[in-house]
Amino acid sequence: MSFRPASTVVLIHGLWVTARSWEDFRLPFEAAGYEVHVPTWPLLDGGTAAELRDAPPPGLGRLTLREIVDHFETYIRGLPEPPLLVGHSFGGLFVQHLLDRGVGVAGAALNPAPIGGVIPGPVSLTGALPAIARWNGWNRTYSLTPERFARRYANRAPPSQQTAAYERYVIPTSGRVLHQAALWLGTSVSPRRRRQPLLITGSDADRLITPYVSRAAYRLQRSSTARTDYLGFEGRSHFLCNEPGWEEVAGAVIGWASQLEGGLAARLGPSSARSETKV
């Protein structure tokens, strides 16, 4: 099956932030000639971070993984061409599910939330435990405090940036999605079915999605016949798409995409390519 090289990229955000969090990361893609799309989750369109913190949309706490992935699939299939997919954190989990459905020409999962079959490990588990251990947490939103955002999410960003980013980007998220991820409910993919190239990243200072989790996903995804690569970033936190040095992360994704056969996954056929790299 053949495709012309993609000139479109869809950036998919994860938990606790709005699509506005891509406002800088998108710029190198635009400079490289991509048409950039930054859709948000169901229920989150139209509100600022401050407004969503003050009044979370009804139903947000019960929003499911399937509903979110279905929403993105509908959006992406409505684009003029199949795009490159780039997702961060739970956005990286969504990217893997979309590829599993045959959506997109290639995908980059940046420090992705664990797919089914990946045991998160103690650091990631303690990061999710406060949300999961609450009474009726399955149906409620969960918010990060500024302190927890700084300590767990953006721990390598300067304090001034942690404060500014919290005010500008951080919002409540779905408690149900967190429970589903912890219990492997609706998070599994079938790597042998995937035909599009996939890049997975990890960073050694990430206190939410550790490199252990990213590498475990990579090992599972390597059973695909399509190209599967792993890229490790040193000295980066979970906030690697925004903290100082984010340009290097964006550049690495653009460089990976440009190296794919035919420009950008022009042929979605079998490949034996497997690689691991550190930056």
TrEMBL record:
This is AB hydrolase-1 domain-containing protein. Coiled coil: none annotated. InterPro entries: AB_hydrolase_1 (IPR000073), AB_hydrolase_fold (IPR029058). Residues 9-250 form the AB hydrolase-1 domain. It comes from Caulobacter segnis (strain ATCC 21756 / DSM 7131 / JCM 7823 / NBRC 15250 / LMG 17158 / TK0059) (Mycoplana segnis). Pfam families: Abhydrolase_6.
